[in-house]
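Methods — Computational structure assignment.
A single polypeptide chain was analysed. Its primary sequence is given first, followed by the predicted tertiary structure written as structure tokens.
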Amino acid sequence: MTKKKTTAIVLAAGLGTRMKSALPKVLHPLAGRPMIGHLMETLEIAGFDKTVVVTASGMDDVAAAVGPHPCVIQQEQLGTAHAVLAARDHLDGFDGEVVVLYGDTPLITVETLHALLAARRGPDNPAVVVLGFRPDDAGAYGRLILDQGGHLNAIVEAREATDGQLKIDLCNSGVMALDGAVLLGILNRIGNDNAKGEYYLTDAVALAREDGRTCAYVEGDVSELTGVNSRAELAVAEEIVQERLRASAMANGATLLDPKTVWFSFDTRLGRDVTIGPNVFFGPGVVVADNVEVRAFSHLEGATLEEGAVVGPFARLRPGARVGKDARVGNFVEVKNATIETGAKVNHLSYVGDARVGAKANIGAGTITCNYDGFSKSHTDIGAGAFIGSNTALVAPVSVGDGAIIGAGSVIAEDVGVDSVALTRATHKEVKGGAKRIRNRKTREKGKS
């Protein structure tokens, strides 16, 4: 039997008023990317043939975020069934599986989606399969009403439920798989005679049963079905995402010395035998090779660390930073759009921006590359094996040749040749006994006051 095609309908038209934000709810970030992006990736991995996103008028940013997938507009927010009908043109004549999901419930897993589709393709051919769950507080969730055979008989919204039905702990997540061959016919019959005056997609269960079709449910994990409607719920979802990312990192060969204090981005890539200290933050775009150590309180984004590199503690790597094999970036060092080549050391209290630090070069404490003149950025090139003395300012554009030595406290604004020594230190002047005479004079003046 040929597997039928699958279409996902993602409902993302909600304005998210409880977020108190000008940003559409589904674009609020989790682990460094919009929450709806997590769901879109999951649907892609799960192998859906088509994904259609339902948005509201004016949500161009959402459409851009989910591209190239098509978007349709729900002109008025009249309920979930009404929202699915906004995708009518993508459902007309479609007889495969349709899965309805929510852009603000982004943590569902591929495994759960496959279980949902497997139930929909089961031998009793259910018209509707609902993803249920058992939250600690059932509260305002709709309840799944089962018949004596364990089949899904109806979904009752909390507002319409009896006292007995409210005691049921099996709740509706909102996610469901439906038979595309009958979906439009069911949707067209859903009315709005209920407490909210809305067109509930949950009514599809009762209508399918009236048509003589079986309905079923699959039970999912509460952590996958966390909806995000407020900043507090966003924080809960972030913690769940971080726990997953931490678990994945450790399962793939990284050591996290204090896992709960390490924060990953959705795209962080770690090699094997990587050690991450406490309170390390990974922003988007970080790639870490094997045998790297990132020490405590470091902040990385858009950076690449090659094998054997050591970073931190208290280091900041900004976008474009590249730390070479066995190189060192130490405490209170900031690197931006710069390459620290193999074996080079920038051990403390320095800023290296728009620069190249050659292999095995040594950058002394307090060194800065003066890369910005108030109008444009310029490049600093430091050759292999060069030694830059402490408290040096390298005024870009400037180059320091291989093996060159820069004396401490220098301001270097001209190129320095290979194996040269350069310094701009003022001539040393010493006044013998001057300090004692100053102290005596100040003491006498103080005594007269």
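Note: Residues 231-251 form the longest helix (21 residues).
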